[in-house]
Design a protein that fits this description.
Glutathione-S-Trfase_C-like (chains A, B); homodimer; Glutathione S-transferase Yfyf (Class Pi), Chain A, domain 2; 2 domains; Glutaredoxin; about 10% strand
Chain lengths: ~220, ~220
């Protein structure tokens, strides 16, 4: 049985939940609470499975997979269901680059552990940490907007008219931006695609508040 | 003609230079100086091509590609030469996850623009910025070491006995760690693989000091 080690609020886990739902792939959720008891991801039992002490991790019948984008590509290569990457190399590169514009340029700066370092090691105030968070989200999403709006390959979704890996990353990032009251004016294309995605049951069922460990 | 927009010290550009060299693919270097005149990546002429205002960017006969990992996968899919990803989905997922453990967990925190924000917006001292840099490199490489040392699929290189996308990411990260005097004890496997890579002409020719824009 496929098991996803997940935390409802982890946006990296959220990406994988969307991909699993788009593929129609069954799985059990194993909740890993990132805040309880100093973080369950640091427990020896979890660390023995994943030295990175991060969620998501997918256990596919004993094959352990980490890093959300790598997991999604694995699902695309091994599961039936709609393709999450285009067939042409240039299109695949574009979808991966859009995903990485979020997964490498925005999200790593706003992880829980980074915010904790700012607070505990550098003594950065709550207000300045909030400013940091919004800065990277707003700057990063403005880049994504230009990448989307300036390319004829953008369709109803980030690339063409079906959801891809890029949308699996875009939706959780917009969700976080909304949660932390980031400025979203100037993002008409990204928000249009977000709304389009949220019409689909796969995106709805993957949302944080629909998870078994939601609080 | 293939053109790589590169900066000799960019470790993301370094990754792509390694992949191009492993593939034996010819290209012209277009230097983009990230520090001169406030950063040439912000010039309107470059920004019009790449809204992210980042290097590397590959121009493959008019197809513009961004994000180093996406570019390397594109090269692997379109160029002859040795494969940079294994054939089996689980192996591909492992190589991608190793690459992303560097490209998503370490490198984004130590970008020039992040260090500039710490200095200019948060007033973080040089000593504390150096501590930040070393913290994320040392923590992140310790994770990579455990991922490498604890998996029988690690061979002469990060995955098996030929270089992959994972090695394209590992070498520039170790190079940076050496440059910034990070602690590297406790990384016997990562350092062994680094030394192994640096025996190969492809890794040697991609090094920062060998680039036309090296200072």
């Amino acid at each position: 049985m496929r098991k996803l080690y997940s935390y409802f609020r982890s946006s990296a886990a959220y990406r994988v939940r969307i991909a699993l739902a788009l593929k129609g792939a069954d799985y059990l959720t194993v909740p890993v609470h990132l805040l309880r008891d100093g973080g369950e991801q640091h427990l020896p039992a979890f660390r023995a499975l994943n030295p990175a002490e991060l969620v998501p991790m997918l256990d596919d019948d004993g094959t352990l997979l980490t890093q959300s984008l790598a997991i999604i590509e694995y699902l695309d290569e091994t599961c039936p269901g709609p393709a999450l990457l285009p067939a042409d190399p240039a299109g695949r590169a574009r979808v991966r680059a859009l995903a990485q514009s979020i997964a490498c340029e925005i999200h790593p700066l706003n992880n829980l552990r980074v915010l904790a370092y700012l607070r505990d090691e550098l003594g950065v105030s709550q207000a300045a940490r909030d400013g940091w968070y919004r800065h990277w989200v707003e700057h990063g999403l403005a880049v994504v907007e230009r990448q989307l709006a300036g390319d004829a390959r953008t369709g109803r979704f980030s690339h063409g008219d079906t959801p891809t890996l890029a949308d699996c990353c875009l939706v959780p990032q917009i969700f976080n931006a909304l949660r932390f009251s980031c400025r979203l004016d100037g993002l008409p294309t990204a928000l249009r695609i977000y709304e389009q995605c949220m019409q689909l049951p796969a995106f709805q069922s993957a949302a944080p508040e629909r998870q078994p460990d939601a609080e």
